[in-house]
C-alpha cells in the first residue's frame, strides 16, 4: 500500500510533496467480460495524474495508525452473508487471500492453486494466524483493502480537517466549533498550532488559515461523495453510544423521570 493523492496542479503539489512522485494521467480498459458479472462490461476509463509515495506504507506506520484510531481492517471483519448469496456458510469467516505457492503446479490459469483464503490471517499475521510482524516492522503492510488504505491516507495526508472537537480526548464530550479547524500534521504532528486558546495557538494562525481556506473546497467534494453512499447504503442504527455525553443524557433522563416521586 502506498499513499496517493490526485493532482490537479502537478507543479505546485510536487513542490509541496518532495517525498512523492508524480504519475501521469491517462486512460485504461477497466473491468472484465470473462470473470465475475459485476466486473463487466470492459470499458475505457480516464484517470487524472496523481502523486504517490516513493515507498510503500510499512507495518510500523500502519501499526501506529491503528493504535491512534482503533481501525479494524476489512480482512478482520467477518463477511455478511447477505452480501454473498450462495456462499457456503462455513466459508463466511474473516480473512484475506494469502499467497501460498504449491510444490507443483497444474493448470497455470487456475489462480486458486497459488492463493488461499486463510482464516486468521490479517496485517498482523500476514502468513496465517501463527505468523507475526515482530521482525517485519519495515516491510510493506499486507492484507489491506481499499477502505483501509483510504482511512490511512486521510489520516496521514498533509492536512487534517476537524468540524467537531474533543478537547478532553475520546472520553470527553464532543464540542461543536464555530469554524473548521485546519492543521498541517506533517509540520505540526502534535497539533499544537491553531487559534489562540490559553497557552496554545497563535494570532498568526488567522492569517495562515485565511490563505489555506481554499482547501475546504476539496473537502466539500469528498463529503459530497460520501453522502451519496448513504442513498444506496442508508444508516440502519445509531452510532456507538459508549461516550460520556450519552451517559450524562441517560442520568438526566432518569433524574427527570423520578422527580416528585
Describe the model:
This protein has 261 residues and is of the alpha+beta class. It has 3 domains: 1-55, no CATH class; 59-144, no CATH class; 162-261, no CATH class. Helix content is 27%, strand content 17%. Strands 1-5-2 form a 3-stranded antiparallel sheet, covered by helices on one side. The protein has a two-stranded antiparallel sheet with strand order 3-4. The longest helix is centred in the last third of the chain and has 17 residues, at 216-232. It is globular, with a radius of gyration of 23 Å.
What does the secondary structure layout of this molecule look like, with pairings?
Elements: E1 4-6, H1 10-16, E2 20-23, E3 26-30, E4 43-47, E5 50-53, H2 59-69, E6 97-99, E7 115-117, H3 146-156, E8 159-165, E9 175-184, H4 204-212, H5 216-232, H6 244-258
Antiparallel strand pairs: 1-5, 2-5, 3-4, 6-7, 8-9
Amino acid at each position: 500500500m502506498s499513499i496517493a493523492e490526485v493532482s490537479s496542479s502537478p507543479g505546485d503539489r510536487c513542490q509541496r510533496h518532495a517525498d512523492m512522485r508524480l504519475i501521469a494521467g491517462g486512460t485504461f480498459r477497466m473491468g472484465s467480460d470473462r470473470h465475475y458479472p459485476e466486473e463487466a462490461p470492459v470499458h475505457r476509463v480516464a484517470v487524472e495524474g496523481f502523486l504517490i509515495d516513493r515507498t510503500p506504507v510499512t507495518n510500523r506506520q500502519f501499526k501506529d495508525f491503528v493504535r491512534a484510531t482503533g481501525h479494524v481492517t476489512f480482512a478482520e471483519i467477518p463477511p455478511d452473508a447477505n452480501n454473498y448469496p450462495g456462499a457456503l456458510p462455513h466459508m463466511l469467516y474473516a480473512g484475506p487471500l494469502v499467497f501460498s505457492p504449491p510444490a507443483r503446479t497444474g493448470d497455470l490459469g487456475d489462480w486458486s492453486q497459488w492463493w488461499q483464503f486463510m482464516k486468521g490471517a490479517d496485517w498482523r499475521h500476514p502468513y496465517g494466524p501463527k505468523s507475526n510482524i515482530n521482525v517485519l516492522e519495515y516491510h510493506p503492510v499486507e492484507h489491506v483493502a481499499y477502505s483501509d488504505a483510504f482511512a490511512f491516507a486521510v489520516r496521514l495526508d498533509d492536512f487534517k480537517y476537524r468540524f467537531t472537537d474533543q478537547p478532553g480526548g475520546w472520553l470527553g464530550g464532543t464540542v461543536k466549533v464555530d469554524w473548521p479547524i485546519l492543521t498541517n500534521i506533517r509540520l505540526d504532528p502534535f497539533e499544537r498550532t491553531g487559534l489562540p486558546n490559553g497557552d496554545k495557538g497563535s494570532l498568526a494562525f488567522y492569517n495562515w488559515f485565511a490563505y489555506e481556506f481554499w482547501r475546504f473546497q476539496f473537502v466539500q467534494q469528498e463529503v459530497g461523495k460520501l453522502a451519496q453512499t448513504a442513498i444506496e447504503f442508508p444508516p440502519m442504527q445509531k452510532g456507538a453510544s459508549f461516550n460520556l455525553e450519552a451517559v450524562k443524557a441517560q442520568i438526566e433522563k432518569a433524574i427527570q423521570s423520578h422527580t416528585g416521586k
